[in-house]
Specification:
The chain is mainly alpha-helical and 206 residues long. Helix content is 68%, strand content 0%. The termini are far apart.
């Protein structure tokens, strides 16, 4: 009796089915990975655009546009639902809470909003101390706080930090790093210049 040759390159139907199944799994896994990558990129792009819009609305709100307060709040809360550690969103939301305090009638509500806002901005700075947006939001916001809250020095340090100073115009303005002095009036001028530069130089955020 001769022994059948099993090395002739042929495969049994069972082996072929297994190979086809494994190929299907590989293709499916590759497809899902690609979809996951695309979804992640889409989320990042949406988050960046949402942060840009929230920041613009916050600046408008800080300048007195009351309608922008709730719009900015809605956007950053939605961002934080998907990215709880998005520190820029924390900073903007903290700033929004302090703005809500100024239109609140009840004193205890005002205090609650301000306290919550300051805590959120401080948390954001602790999480990303070199982030230009975060330092500007806290600095430009806290510079307007009542003196008894002792936030002036904190705001001064934010607005005159190295990362912030990089985008303050160096000539043709009293907000120049070489000319700016530690007065509320000059720091407010600096904050406004930073706000304008910030909308142009967001790629410089550390």
């Amino acid at each position: 009796m001769t022994t059948p040759d099993i090395s002739d390159g042929t495969s049994s139907p069972g082996v072929k089915k297994t190979n086809i199944f494994l190929l299907y799994i590989l293709v499916l896994f590759t497809h899902l990975s690609l979809c996951g990558t695309l979804a992640s990129e889409a989320t990042k792009n949406w988050e960046k655009m949402a942060l840009d819009e929230a920041l613009k609305l916050y600046i408008l709100a800080a300048d007195g546009d009351e309608k922008s307060v709730s719009k900015a709040e809605s956007i950053v809360k939605k961002i934080l639902e998907g990215s709880p550690k998005q520190f820029e969103a924390h900073a903007i939301l903290g700033g929004v809470y302090t703005l809500k305090a100024r239109r609140s009638f009840w004193a205890n509500k005002k205090i609650s909003y301000v306290k919550r806002g300051m805590e959120m901005m401080d948390k954001a700075v602790e999480g990303a101390p070199k982030n230009l947006t975060i330092r500007w939001v806290r600095g430009s916001n806290n510079i307007h706080m009542p003196k008894f809250l002792n936030r002036f020095d904190l705001a001064k340090n934010d607005l005159l930090s190295k990362s912030i100073r990089l985008i303050i115009p160096t000539s043709g303005t009293t907000a120049s790093p070489k000319l700016v002095c530690f007065s509320e009036k000059k720091l407010n001028i600096a904050a406004k210049n930073i706000a304008h530069s910030l909308s142009i130089n967001r790629n410089d955020i550390a």
